[in-house]
Amino acid sequence: MYLGLDLGTSALKALLTDDKANIIKEESASYDIHYVNGNGTEQYPLDWIKALNSILIKLKDYLPQVKSLAISGQMHGLVILDEYDNVIRPCILWNDNRTVKENNLLNQDKELIYQETNNISYTGFTLAKLLWVYNNERVNFNKIAKIMLPKDYLIYYLTGIFVSDYTDMAGSLLLNVKDRTYSQKMLDLAHINIKQLPTLKESYEVAGLVKDNLKKEFGFVNTKVVLGGADNALAALATNTIEPGTCNISLGTSGTILMPVKEVINLNSYALHTFSHIKGSYVMGCILSAASCRKWFLEDILNTNDYYADENLIQQADTKDLYFLPYLQGERSPHNDPLAKGAFIGLTSQTSRSNMSKAILEGVSFAIKDSYNIAIDAGIKINSLTLCGGGTKSKVWCQMIADIFNLEAKTLVNEQGPAYGAVLLAMLGDKVLAFEDINKFIKYDKTYLPNNVAYYDDKYKYFKKLYPALKKVFKKRD
User: Fold this and answer.
1) Which residues lie below 8 Å from residue 30, measured CB to CB, with a gap of 6+?
2) I need a labelling partner for 243 at 20 to 30 A (CA). Which of 204, 339, 361, 478 fits?
3) What's 337's DSSP letter?
4) At 27, phi and psi to the nearest 5?
């Protein structure tokens, strides 16, 4: 058997499969997000360990048969340990925005940052968090012996080995994605040395075996722990978005578009991320609010969770002159503006709930297309599109994306995302699966063909003008 773990923002998810990647059992355990001073988000790494232990107890009868496991993890988080392996402070999460000052300082020389890391700084990236700790918690900073990403802490707990992989470390702003080495210039900017950072390996390599004390406690028998990787890379693996020409859009709390490339390319823009993939690299755009926009409107504003009724209402809704900007948490790609604001534009006394619901889906889709167009302009060619995430439960939304991107869009039978990607990596690490055979495990569900392209092409032209216009308004007010 094989075990895939996904250390998400709100819960740890586990998939147990046989050697054909058929799911035998699923488990999950949740933990809290702690909000700090309005713009900070943190978690206690010990809560992740408690969640993992609770899952392992539930799976205990199966664990003697687990040959290997792999872990997918939320990106960019900062976990710091002292010389005694004690966690120094809570993990600062990927969606934390306290680092505006540090981020702006780093981006004063975008050319240097990009040359060294193939990215620029964003408030959520690990390097900015390190600088924040340096500037605001110097006592804590001076205690740092080990710097980890969230899933690396679980690997360290399971194996006692201080290691990370390229896909996850690519989002730290400490790695040169092109050269696949730590950047000494970035380390110098962060006031750290290479001894404080984990050894780097490929996602499919084995980190080590489960420790003896955990073998005894949970029943593992010489189980390998495979490195695993960043949640976006593993979600791409689970949708077979590995080779150039493929593309995956994830409609979760946030929204991502991921496009593999053979080698790192010059995007002629600082607007997108270039991260390491399981094979090669990928270009990614990330918007901070996707399905969460719809959740906000239905549950927080309308006080309903009847998504099915909403789906029926919006099918015939007219949104010709109605627009929605989905920047409820600021924005990452392509604007890199933590102060961006959301908005409805074009409201009249005749605007209905269904009009507004449909405009939200359009606005999120257009925001993702902003990143897609930058990649296309840089010469990336896309032939196929898969959709994953909770948003794919909406058939209206899936059809809308096929129209807006003018691509055939497919959803998956197995909507397990990063956890399923972790299972495939566990099998790759155990050498019972080869990359060329991954497509055999990907089963598609529905196919959506574009049929309203001209309408959305025209509407998108106006959408693109709205963010720059409103930014000018808010700048004048400030």
Assistant:
1) 10, 11, 12, 51
2) 361
3) B
4) -140, 155
The residue with tokens 């039978």 is 413
Residues recognised as catalytic: 231
- Ordered by where they begin, the domains of the chain are 2-233 (3.30.420.40), 240-416+443-478 (3.30.420.40)
Q: 299 - beta bridge partners? A: none
Q: Do 59 and 50 touch, CB atoms closer than 8 A?
A: no
- CA neighbor of 447 nearest in space, from 405, 415, 410: 410
Calpha distance 346→321 (Å, rounded): 6
- CA distances, 341 to each of 101, 338, 379, 467, 470 (Å): 19, 9, 31, 9, 9
For the chain, give the mean pLDDT. 94
pLDDT at position 326: 98
Written as one letter, the residue type at 197 is L
DSSP states along 16-74: EE-TT--EEEEEEEE---EEETTTEEEE-HHHHHHHHHHHHHHTTTTGGG--EEEEEE-
pLDDT tens-digit map of 311-349: 989 988 999 999 999 999 889 899 988 889 999 999 999
Structure tokens at 216: 């005894």
pLDDT in tens, 27-77: 999 999 999 988 899 999 999 999 999 999 999 999 999 999 999 999 999
pTM of the predicted structure, to 2 decimals: 0.89
